[in-house]
Amino acid sequence: xxxxxxxxxxxxxxxxxxxxxxxxxxxxxxxxxxxxxxxxxxxxxxxxxxxxxxxxxxxxxxxxxxxxxxxxxxxxxxxx
Length: 80
Hints:
Blueprint: H1 14-22, H2 25-28, H3 41-70
C-alpha cells in the first residue's frame, strides 16, 4: 500500500504541497528544539523510569475518577 503524501498522490491538495515545500519533513523532523536532558546513560535510565512511574500513577488516578463516577462510593476518601 502506497503512502498518501504530496509526492505519490495524483491530485494533491495545494495546501499540502505548499506546506511540504515550506517545511520538508526530511529536514524539519528534528527534536523540536527540546534540550537534551542528559548525556549520561545511567541518569537517562533513571529519568526514564521516573517518567514511567509518573505515567502509571496518572493512569491509576484517571481510572479512579472514572470508577468513582460510575460506581459511587467505590473510591475511598472521594469526594474529599
